[in-house]
Design goal:
The protein has about 200 residues and is mostly helical. The chain is about 50% helix and about 0% strand. It contains nine helices and no strands. It is globular, with a radius of gyration of 17 Å.
Length: about 200
């Protein structure tokens, strides 16, 4: 599926929800794709930070990360949070990006583009309270085909643009969830196809 076909899929999917994609949005082309190992590591680092942002002791989150060999993959913003006094509201939002990576790794069959991730998502990830290991998650990681990733990124980009545009124009929300939902999913897919650190991804629309 080429970029034009991916855009047509996005247009049709969003039109079915009464949403219009403008003609001027640029098409997306994939030239690189990160590997499954790096993607699992990113998912697990986000998982540790999200758990800490919801009250799991930071020192235990760091200990679990070291136990599982992912401590060296934390980004600067994450280490600052885990070693500091910040409340970590940002990392709660990252759960939407985590869900996108989880799907991209083949652990989930589909993404519900028109609903935020459900509260049960965390139960599909290692339980930090029991210091659960990550061997199975790492060994079973299989990145989806780049066409699937590109199609998901295009849809996330279009949906994010629509939500931001409607907000700027003072219109009612496009869908019954906050703007960060498509934005953080887009961040995850943008990260997958590029080289930028997670928190440096440009989410301009």
């Amino acid at each position: 599926m080429d970029s034009k076909a991916q855009r047509e899929f996005s247009v049709q999917t969003l039109q079915a929800e009464g949403l219009k994609v403008p003609d001027h949005l640029p098409l997306i082309n994939i030239t690189t794709l990160r590997g499954p190992g790096a993607t699992v590591e990113r998912l697990l680092c986000l998982h540790a930070c999200a758990a800490a942002s919801y009250g799991f002791p930071k020192i235990k989150a760091l200990a679990w990360a070291e136990q599982e060999g992912i401590g060296k993959f934390f980004e600067e913003e994450e280490l600052s949070f885990l070693k500091g006094e910040e409340t970590g509201t940002l990392f709660r939002l990252q759960i939407e990006g985590m869900a996108a990576l989880y799907w991209a790794l083949g652990y989930e069959e589909q993404i519900d583009w028109f609903s935020p991730i459900d509260d049960k998502f965390v139960t599909r990830l290692p339980d930090l309270r029991r210091s659960e290991h990550t061997h199975h998650l790492k060994s079973s990681a299989r990145l989806r085909h780049d066409d699937e990733i590109a199609t998901a990124l295009d849809l996330a980009y279009c949906l994010h643009w629509i939500t931001v545009d409607r907000k700027l124009r003072g219109l009612p929300a496009a869908l019954p969830f906050e703007d960060f939902v498509p934005a953080e999913r887009r961040r995850a897919f943008d990260w997958l196809i590029g080289f930028e650190p997670w928190y440096s991804i440009n989410l301009d629309t």
